[in-house]
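Recap for those who missed Tuesday's class. We walked through two folding examples back to back. For each one, the amino acid string is listed first and its predicted structure tokens come directly after. Nothing is annotated here on purpose, so try labeling regions yourself before you check the end of the notes.
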Amino acid sequence: MKMDVSFADMVRHYRTQLKWTMDILSEKSKVNKGTISKIENRDVKRPEYKTIKSLATALQIPYAEYIKAYIPLERNSEVILNILQEAITISDSSFLISDIATKYLELPHLDSYDAIEQLYFLANEVKDTSIQISLYKTIANYSRSHGVVFFLARSLLQMYYIERNDFTRLRETYQSGRYILNYTDIFNNRERLGFHYGLAVHAYTLRLYNDSVKLCELIINDNNSEGTGEKVHALCMFRCSNYYLGNYSVAEKCLIQSDKYTSPYTKDNDMLLRALLNAKKGNAELAHSQFEECLEKCAKSFIVFVVNEFLSFCLFQKDILKAENLIKTYEQKIDDLERNNPLRRTEYAFFRKLVLIFHG
């Protein structure tokens, strides 16, 4: 097979632009003049990658341009893998990643499973999330078309974990997570538990409480969740989700049973839930004192959750003085809190909305 016309023309074009003779290019690139002549005349079989790179570097051909021309011609798996690792380190070559990875996977002499595994482990080590997404997507597409469910499931899972960090696409990425539920039997116990928990939090953040309840039940009923933080927090989300669905008796029953599973976060949450349940029962004075106690004792990061519920309660009760005092006391503190996850951002947005309602 002869060298691709586009690369041969590329070398001649850049050399001519620089007004270099083959002798000059040979001197600059340290590539034999005869080899250069054969490349330009398309008389040489695939030259080694180091030859191509030397010529391209001397001629200042953009990396992406010469790699795109070369990759379709290379058949050596080690060379392609090395090029892929090289491309990963070059900031302006991210769009090439999928092409190079696909070429590697499609080499006829490689075992498909081994090739996919090699790429998957490589993707796990990459720091740039956009490149990770490109690699995982390539692996998922190839795995799907070749029936390699093990790596299809894991690539989809890794993409979900990355993409859900884009807080502007929470609903879209939640649907991606829901799709992965079809593959959970492929995961080991730890992977499955972590995924169910992450998706339950995702649903709760989006206030999809019916989904949150069902996902929390998967965690609570998982024998492998006993004694884990995931189970403790799932029980907490289960109680709160039922409360927001209007299933107050279920929420209260779970709250009574909650002493077995506690953590600093769930203690704060349980205090708040007791106040909310008493408010629903019409025990306004008791609820008021419980809201106050919760504000006094809760963690700094939990203040916005308590203030939102307490402020909503005060506005419903038409207790304008207390509502005003809450805003004056806590507005700056809430503004200063880190909003580094979707749930906190949602609660902060709700707080600003309540402030607008109060002043409106």
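Example two. Treat it independently of the first, because the proteins are unrelated.
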Amino acid sequence: MDEETKQKLKEAGREDLIEIFEINQSGYAGVLSNGNIVDRRIFPEAIAVQKNSMFGIPEPKDLIGMEAGETCNRDGCKGVIALKDKDPCYCHIIAPCSSCCQNYEYCPECGYEPDQP
């Protein structure tokens, strides 16, 4: 979509069409059960929009794993996110404790940890 088309859509009050176009171009477009097109990084339950050359929609991208049991998918990594052993909780002394505020997910395959970019 060129800038002229975007400007015309904005003037017509149709920013929603620009947003849908950009989501489709990202490779993370998905469809919810109510038919709305959404970003699967925000709505992982959405069904991926499949590649469609006629409409310029690329192959859907894999979501990056964030929780234990999900596939990592960082730079092609096929490892499964696991949990480190959790430190003992001491919220009964001072809440929230550092143990409860810490992320314990990691990828044993590529070494990803949540505090990394």
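Answers for example two:
The chain has a mean pLDDT of 89.
The chain has two helices and five strands.
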